[in-house]
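Dear Dr. V.,

Thank you for agreeing to look over these. As mentioned in my earlier message, I'm a first-year student in the group and I'm still getting used to reading structure tokens, so any feedback on how I've presented them would be very welcome. I ran two proteins. I've put each sequence directly above its structure. The first is here:
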Amino acid sequence: MKNVVLKNFTYLSLFNIMMVGFPIFIYPLVVSRLGSELLGKVVFYQTIAFYITVIVNFGFNITSTKKIANNEVKEVNVLFWDIFHFKIVAYLVCSISLYLIFSYFQYDLKLVFFILLIPLYDVFVPQWFYHGRQTMGVITALTAVNRVVMLFLIYFLVQKEQDYILYAAIISVIPLFFSIISFVILINGKEMLTYVKPSFRRIRAEVAESQVIFYASLSSVIKDRSNVILIGTYIGYTEVAAYDLVLKLINIITGFFSNYTQAFFPHMANKMNITEFKSSLFKLSIISLAVTALGYVVVFYSTEIFRFLRLSQFDIAFVSSMKNIAFIVLPIILIRSICYMIGLGVLITSGLTKEYSKNLWYSNLVYVLSATSLVFLGVVNVTTLSTILVSTLMFELLYRLYSCKKHDKLHWLF
């Protein structure tokens, strides 16, 4: 089992690094070419695409992965094409609706067009299938090539501020091209995924089964990404860029821990080994705590680090804004890692999906009420928004501990 978990964890981590780490890697280059204001504008529009991506994926990356891993599906091609049909319809409905709305309010339609292509990547990349079959190596390799091509094009083609539309085109079209390649490879490979007409009854059943995980993903995006929308609307695009960079760094770190949980989940769902889970949770907690503490050290010396790395693209105000944000949001590493492990490993595995769903809705309610209060009181700033994000996640963790106690599951944790 350990070799399988390690293999899945390694591929998922590499995939996560390339998906989340690549934008961080090119940040200095893009800021130097476009400026923090225009980069922030692109990020602001990208945030809208994240909501579509969540709807398109609809939790299948967990529920369908489990089915494939545990051989619960007799006709794999039926499941594959049902999920594909749902994704393509969901994407078309969401993207066309948003484009019409943006057209009505006269947004930057060229930028909107390319940004709305980003969720189409998730339509053609069946990560859930590769993960369930434990063949993440294929998609990881294609993603690596995809990122190299993007870096090459951005470096040589994006030269000035007016190229921000070209930048948006590159980060949307290139991944889409490689996602279609991976899709063609899969359906023509050894799996023999012959086409099956969609069935509304089957698709409705899959959606119903995945809706709790969908709520979890939507909850995460609402809390993480709505702040970007509020910052862009009430403060400015430069602050959007600073906030986005810090959250991307946080997400790539928490991604390692969530990837471990996802890699561990199929085994946990099948074996239900409480002792093994408790040991894994303890190790994850200690490591995430150490990483959080290390993060504070890095933030404290961040000015010197930026100077040492000669990252002159970031001005003093930008770096100062990043430091202020990071000091507030760093606990997210510890909180989210433990929270995700308890949610997936205890509540979902124990069949407490309603409790899990209730936790997510309550935490979203806390965030929405807090954010709404900031707007009405006229105190919307990066500090207050970062604070309510951390507070909401802390509420989510405490509620999950309460749920474990309520359903006599604390012995899984302590």
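The second protein is here, in the same arrangement:
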Amino acid sequence: MAPRKRKSRSVPDAVAESVKRERDRRQWTQEQLAGEMRDLGFTSWGRTTVTEVEGAGRGRQVSVPELLGLAMIFGVGIDGLLWPDGETVPLEITSDRALTERAQLIAVMVSLGAVRQLVTEGPARQFQEAVERLTAGYIDRVKETATELRGVADFIESRAFETLRKDIELGLEGGAKS
């Protein structure tokens, strides 16, 4: 008999399964994953935190910033932690509501203000600031290059005007001689 397909699962169960699977794929210990989270600024993460997130012991739900951190560490989107490998199992939000597709997840996050929270709090804010610093370096280089190009364009323009002025003077002199 074929295995029964699940009708739905809870968000904590989905995250627990994904964290365990992604950690196992990398052959990381729980302490290694905890260290990666600490490196992102989640200073309270330890081996036992990973154990709890993976569903063992008393279990533990992750916060939205922690979910983002895990997604960054594993190189997957948040939806990849909730629906791994293209699964389509609905996620239970309440006892009578479930998310059935990724687009609904985005709508829920926006409506709950989670996106704002991710950008303004903790490690996610530190990540954003790091991206802004990197981007600022590129923007400065682009500005420098644009300034250099403006200088070259000004030089070419001044040479063109000088040549035109000389041609006009020669033309006037040539016309006066006729």
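From my reading of the second output: The chain has two domains: 9-120, 123-178. Strands lie at 9-10, 91-94, 97-99. Does that match how you would interpret it?

Kind regards,
E.
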